[in-house]
């Protein structure tokens, strides 16, 4: 199913489900759209057919799911990604960090979960603040570069979409914040894909 606009996706899946005896669906797509996961979750809840999302938009982890949904996603949630990152930070004794986010939906939950992880830990974390970037109001990146320079921590946890990551790293590179001594951890449910993020 290459056409993943909502109407086409729903119509095609319903056609398949109604015409064949299906015990489950394994779904893979090349998009990075969370809408695909939401549609699959809805279809699973309405039809009681198990659906497994293995790549692309279908694997973007949704929480919570629709009541009655049997939609399994093979991806990691933002919370799981953060837990792993904090284990790495602890292992290397990198206790001072800052949080950088865009206005990507879920950024407030991301900030809240960072606070939960640091407040409930016996590690002496030094949380040096949160910077929220508004990339749409800053097409040239001047404000973004200025805001990134104001962050005093060399360890940065970035929450954003894949497209936003490219803009943030371009601004960080221009501001001299991507060389030796700067460590960025990029967190998000929509960062996968076969292409790599830009190297800076």
Automatic annotation (TrEMBL):
Gene3D superfamilies: 3.40.50.2300. The keyword Hydrolase does not apply. Keywords: Membrane, Transmembrane, Transmembrane helix. Its main location: membrane. InterPro entries: ANF_lig-bd_rcpt, Peripla_BP_I. Residues 33-187 form the Receptor ligand binding region domain. One of its GO terms (cellular component) is membrane. It is found in: Membrane. The keyword DNA repair does not apply. This is NMDE4 protein. The gene is Grin2d.
